[in-house]
Amino acid sequence: MTTSTEAGATVSARAGWWAAVLFTVAAMVSYTDRFILSLLVDPIERELGMSDAQFSIIVGAAFAIFYTAMGVAAGWLADRHNRKRMIIIGILIWSAATIATGFARDFGTMAILRVAVGTGEAMLMPAAVSMLANMFPPERRSMPLALLMLGMIAGNGFAFLLGGALVELVSHQAFIGLPVLGDLSGWRVVMVIAGTPGIFLAAAMASSIREPVRAVSRPPNSLAEPLAWLWRHRRQLGPIYLGCAALSLGDFALVSWAPSLMIRSYGVSTSSTGFIFGLLAILAGSLSALAGGAVAGRLRATGKGDRRPAAIIAATIVGLAGTGLLLVPSAYGVIGAISVWGFSSAFAQTVSLPLFQERLIDEVRGIGSSLGGVFNIMLGLSIGPILVPVFKETGMAQAEALLVAMAIAGAAAAALFAMLLVRLPVSTAKPGS
Q1: Greater confidence, 88 or 274?
Q2: Which of 239, 253, 376, 402 lies closest to 312 in space, CA to CA?
Q3: Is 4 left (phi over 0), alpha (psi -120 to 50) or beta?
Q4: Which domains does the chain have, with CATH numbers?
Q5: What is the pTM of this model?
């Protein structure tokens, strides 16, 4: 294998930022298509005759299992093949599957389509992060990566805003008489419209960005080489992998069940819930992602050493404390909890992203990044949503069940990130060497 060096920018600053913007929009669209179902729990369950546990499988395991499986393959492909083409194919797959969800007639069909959404979305992050790492030098990566994180957070919020707005339009029969949409029930209209923007985004990417030059001329000979390298450096990488996965567990538990808590327990309308959660996710999450990007750049090299781990731990503890607001017996407690947790989680993950990229060498950047998504989905999305129904089966109210799930996530994340305070050398030895 050839020796790797850190890549400088292989495209102009303007081209690099344009790619970062398009990747951010793609992340926003992907998270919208991933989470918009969370606002539609009750109408979907009523029409298709599903239980809470079945719905948890739809939004969780059905997506997560194949996202996880495809994530490893996507990372491997991102280190060896055209990353721009991968992203475009992935967008088309998940967009088509989201549109098709609007025509699903039973639980099995919904599960298969969520598998397709997970398969398509798995292609985005490893390829996008790898491309940005080759488009920007290390000292300038924090803000482009923060922008990408912003897209994920904004997508979460946009899912609620779009879903709530469309539910309101449907209630006023805004789509009556239109071809296709006019014959669908409300939640189906939401899914068809949510999946459509990705088609246009894929066309924009195909025509306006190009594949950057890699820092290495030849990728690893086998999948075993980069996996072995990552395993050897597990003490440097593991706390970030698992700490972010624990935060994701809390994120997915909250986004899956906090909306229905507002609707079922506190009588807030679906459209109002969508507006409130969407606005909170976009404002709190966006501010935290931008703040995290700025802080990550400032704390990267100081006279007192790298202070990013301390910032990550502090943010996680604040988020953990914020989950206690779920005990306030009103909608305002839920709003407060999602605001504090959303800001803290996004901040911690944004600061950790460039720290993580600095611990990877270029030969394993694609698969290393994809494994981050694999852990987030495998542990976060497959476990987070199902925890709440499991705790409810023990007799807990929904608010209590959600609080316990969030407390587990926050405590685990804080403990894992604390391991970053142990100073370990970051080796640049190549895979197979």
Answers
A1: 88
A2: 239
A3: beta
A4: 13-421 (1.20.1250.20)
A5: 0.70
